[in-house]
Amino acid sequence: MQNPATFLPLRPAIAAAAGTAALLATAALVNRQLARKAEHENPPQGSFIDVDGVRLHYVERGKGRALLLLHGNGTMIQDLQSSGLVDLAAKNYRVIAFDRPGFGHSSRPRGGVWGPDEQADLFRKALERLGIPRAIVLGHSWAASIAVALAIKHPASVEALVLASGYYFPTSRPDLAAPSVPAIPLLGDVVSNTISPILARLMWPALLRKLFGPQPVPRKFAGFPVEMAVRPSQLRASAEEAAMMIPAAAAASGTYGEISMPTVILAGEEDRLIEVEQSARFHRLVQGSRLRRIARAGHMIQQTETSSVMAAIDEVASISAQGEDYPALVAPSVS
Asked: What is the C-alpha to C-alpha distance for residues 167 and 291, in angstroms, rounded to an integer?
């Protein structure tokens, strides 16, 4: 029989492991309760549609030509609403804004890949279910890649494109390593349910400075439901999209010359998340596209430069209506 004394050195390690497990379990329980509280305090504002096993939440406003608005990674419909873009566009368009899979109140089934191509297929079917065979499509940030995929895979469904703050070509992005951790199988579930929500709350002010800089965060963004954004499920969805960002751009970059519909590209000159050269290079590959480089603007141009985004929507709508083949035009800045 072994001497019990031989187990003495292991006792501190066992106690530490047990304590860590207890802390993680407590954190997971608290995060789950906070997520439920956030969903209760921020109920769905629109309607739901089930497409290929995905329950999509969407808001519809206005009448006229269809306009599909797709939010970027980590946000939800409330970003587009608080910017004022939904109400502004609804004066002249039939606006459809979706919570993308895993964000807001839309589901994101596990076991599949939700890259730009897959989401493009999903939203094409969703639009058809809503009786919309063709729409002007606006994609911000990560969703610009979805808008591009829609234009390339389903050109008959896309009347025109507005692409804002997009990432189109693979680059070295060491800043994506940490945000992608919750996407790792098994480990990601543990991290996203325990540590990630805590870290996300602590890092939120710094993240906003990076996203909005050099401009200040506008007052209208104050009502954005932060607690919805830091739920474990949404953090995991965000991590998956961060992990896909570079490979998705690499896969799509050879297809941009196939885009044939009117396209306006918007980019903030001082975007701290995605360099403006991404948009400039993309513009050079898309025949007839127009580039709007917005001076002193950062990444969140739908919030800080809402009138410029609305002007771009009206611009592509006008080009499409006239049916003319406009030459490429570079505008150094838009005030």
From this structure: 14
Percentage above 70 pLDDT, the chain: 91
Number of Cβ atoms within 10 Å of the Cβ of 117: 18
Q: Is 56:99 a contact under the CB 8 Å cutoff?
A: yes
Rounded Cα distance between 57 and 46, Å, is 7
Task: Quote the tokens at residue 10.
Answer: 């292991």
Whole-number Å distance between alpha carbons of 190 and 258: 42
Nearest CA to 116 out of 142, 92, 141, 90 is that of: 142
Within its chain, how far is the Cα of 250 from the centroid?
Answer: 18
Which residues contact residue 299 at a Cβ distance below 8 angstroms, ignoring those fewer than 6 apart?
141, 165, 210, 211, 212, 268, 271, 272, 273, 274
Domains of the chain as residue ranges with CATH:
44-171+245-331 (3.40.50.1820)
Res 8: pLDDT: 55
pLDDT tens-digit series, residues 5-29: 555 566 776 766 666 677 767 888 8
pTM of the model: 0.90
CA distance 247 to 74: 19
For residue 97, give every residue at least 6 positions away whose Cβ sits within 8 Å of its Cβ, in sequence order, or none.
46, 58, 59, 60, 61, 68, 69, 70, 71, 77, 80, 81, 86
Dist. CA 27–CA 31, nearest whole Å: 6
Give me the torsion for CA of 295, 296, 297, 298, rounded to 10°.
130
